[in-house]
Amino acid sequence: xxxxxxxxxxxxxxxxxxxxxxxxxxxxxxxxxxxxxxxxxxxxxxxxxxxxxxxxxxxxxxxxxxxxxxxxxxxxxxxxxxxxxxxxxxxxxxxxxxxxxxxxxxxxxxxxxxxxxxxxxxxxxxxxxxxxxxxxxxxxxxxxxxxxxxxxxxxxxxxxxxxxxxxxxxxxxxxxxxxxxxxxxxxxxxxxxxxxxxxxxxxxxxxxxxxxxxxxxxxxxxxxxxxxxxxxxxxxxxxxxxxxxxxxxxxxxxxxxxxxxxxxxxxxxxxxxxxxxxxxxxxxxxxxxxxxxxxxxxxxxxxxxxxxxx
Length: 310
Ligand code: FAQ
Prior knowledge:
The protein is built from 13 helices and two strands, in the order H-H-H-H-H-H-H-H-H-H-E-E-H-H-H. The protein is mainly alpha-helical. A two-stranded antiparallel ribbon has the order 1-2. Bound molecules: Phenylacetyl coenzyme A (FAQ). The site of Phenylacetyl coenzyme A has 28 residues, from helix 2, helix 6 and helix 9.
């Protein structure tokens, strides 16, 4: 009976046994995973755009090769995640379409422009740094296919974070102009990066249930704090500052205290009114339309092969 299935599912969650694709699961658990994994996949795919903007303008061949590899990795992450979502019974086309139609979200951070080369270093360092803190926790998510995809993704993200830090180190040790560019990029990205972790725990509708199901192992605020604690020493090592007068070490708490986040900005960006929301969706819609001939060609080829085999 359903009650027995539910009991079996609850026992697995309690025992930290992974839920697999063919296992029974409550429909709300399935839908919640499709929502989160789908948004995560869309973020990887849309996340290629801000960096792709600088592929043709990277300062050296080495930087260009590294950035190309990183952007390709992001495409790969999108593919693993769409595959993980498909194991839950949704079609890739269907959720991709929802993203193109603005009915499914992707991370707020990719709605900010990349104005200069320093932004690319800062994305690798801070955006991938934030992504790792969030994704390391997801390696232990209760849904097996999602957790396993996260393990591989985290290994690649850690290379991304280091290449970003190496790029910003070069600028921090460079000319006064380079230092100023870096500080400006940090000033623009700092707060939006803190917003990547989602609304505060008191305003996060999905958190309680996702934590009970062990999809999320830590709350949004816990992960945000962990990121700040990791990052401030890196900021200091660069000789740079954060645009936050209240950022300070709290000896008693063993954490860095930071200023209030402007939640209205996150809400505006999530609602589609950020600086680049329109441009990002336009770019993805154009890519979808321009790729129609590839999909048609691949389908015709597969049909021909199947007929030959028969
Ligand atoms: N942006 O109740 P909660 C990357 C939405 S890293 C947009 O707290 P939840 C790597 C949320 O979806 C970035 N929307 O929700 C890379 C929900 O909306 P809904 C991707 C946000 O799910 C680097 C509503 O607000 N990483 O791509 C944001 O429990 C460089 C209420 O929020 C992931 O997606 C936001 N910042 O917690 C690629 C990680 N925050 O569905 C290229 C996986 C919240 O009700 C270059 N996801 N919302 O319409 C998660 O861990 C979670 O989904 C959270 C949100 C923590 C993002």
